[in-house]
Amino acid sequence: MAKSGSTRRPSPSDAKAAARHQARAASSSSDVLLSTAERLYAERGLDGVSLREIAREAEQKNNSALHYHFGSKEALLDAIIRLRMQEVDALRNDYLDECEVQGRTDLRAAVEALVRPLAHGLLGSRPNHYNRFLAAAQIHPDIDLAAHASEEAQRGFRRVYAKLERALPHLPPAVLRQRYLTGIALITFSLADFERIKARKVRESRGFDMFRAIENLIDMIAGALAAAVSEQVRSRLDSVESASRTRRGRS
Length: 251
Known about the structure:
Number of domains: 2
Low-confidence stretches: 1-6, 14-27
Largest sheet: none
Shape: globular
Number of strands: 0
Number of helices: 11
Radius of gyration: 24 Å
Distance between the termini: 92 Å
């Protein structure tokens, strides 16, 4: 029995419990900083808010908390992009798996797999900021979104593209690729706009039919991907191919 006034030495189990508590606190602080940064970047743009403002808005007592967890603004942006891309890609692959079970090989299924995972956060009651953040990152001159995506986080995109190739075999590869990339940009900025409209409508206590907006966006993207290739575009493709043959002949 310990004598009165003596100090008990921490046991190994005490040390492990303290380490777990510290890890949970650090993880919680990191999550709050990430979500706060995403919201502020979505609302003000990537250059419109300082790390100090993010820490203050996240109610962090230590102004160096962001540097402690992430090291720099670039690392913070990378953490947000990677986290959300992983979440969206998981939803996208789940949706594609469902399509395979249902035997859906149609064009709309492929487009739905692009749109629905990104639109997922817009359909709940909680505020959503990722689409506006993503749009801000998309147009920033110093951000290359593809460079932030891990190979695994790109798996859903690769599956969608393969699905589009099967659904649109008549499209020249160069045309399909350009339409695909343009379609992703249109989806990104459209959903960011839907997100902005919803936030405003909520503040004004007004309704917005998000389901209709998303379904209509899917219709639009599917229609754009399947549009007939004009004579003008085919002429450009032919001229590029002719020039390529000429160069190969000279080499």
